[in-house]
């Protein structure tokens, strides 16, 4: 969810070994006024974990009836339905979801509300939303373990965004790097307010489900940092004894989520520029492998992708970003360790390696493409999945939203 991807979790002893938590936070509980600089975007990203964060809103968690120790941590993530889902979306997010759904309480959604922050094709939005949902399932998301739904089908996302907006200093939003970059490209006169405020919607997506962890790429750290600070700010302004005096539970309103960053695959780069992230918005389709690309198109894109003139192949040479990117893609697709890839490929020339990478990509993506076609041909199936996912998500979201309305002093609605 830079703009494409979002999610959340907290790594304790049961966390997946594939992921390393970064950023530490235990959630402040103030007995007096907080430091003057608390609500500024100042937390450095560290690679440490200290504590399990604020625990609240127990009604929104999966709790075993027999043992309180069996509470599952929650992960939420999503991908925008703009353009085709590509290899960067898959390796950086969706592929990692499959293992997480066995360990965590997982909710995966299609972030269609984020898709309208820049000009978009109105006729394509609905179709792209369905396609993205089908790709989730085709990649292995299991609806018996994870809830799959469309963001706009759970209205609490927008409601909470408005409430959070009232507590978000505008200076925080003006500092967001992606806003600066995208507004500069579009021109200030053509930029909608949503481009400025979408990080608040992203925070709503995360905080609404009392998320423990958020799987994020390198380019999404700043958005999660804002979410964490906004959670702390709202907890201080409206939580604790203030909330209890209004008849609420008291304590923290939101959990302060922790990031999970995959050790590899968090940032898949363009096939035409190893210094730029693979993106749906890139003008050239040659820059990305789409999950539904036919095998001849995959072969053509790999054949034409940018390489270099250095001998042999190697990871982590700053002068060879394309080499590092292509080897990383092969490592993830083939399911091998970095050491295994080095041993196999370090003496290869580009022609030999490109053939190897092409075959690996085609073999890996073929079953996904077959399953996608089966899902799209099953009339009504996808609609049922999305409706059930939205129902389950709404149960959690509505409980959080009720708490926020109460803590902020709104008159309770009588049915």
Automatic annotation (TrEMBL):
**Protein name per Swiss-Prot or TrEMBL:** tryptophan--tRNA ligase
Concerning Gene3D superfamilies, the annotation shows: HUPs, Tyrosyl-Transfer RNA Synthetase
Listed GO molecular functions?
ATP binding; tryptophan-tRNA ligase activity
Q: Which reaction does it catalyse?
A: tRNA(Trp) + L-tryptophan + ATP = L-tryptophyl-tRNA(Trp) + AMP + diphosphate + H(+)
Keyword annotations for this protein, in alphabetical order, are:
Aminoacyl-tRNA synthetase, ATP-binding, Ligase, Nucleotide-binding, Protein biosynthesis
Which protein family is named in the record? Belongs to the class-I aminoacyl-tRNA synthetase family.
Where does this polypeptide localize? Mitochondrion
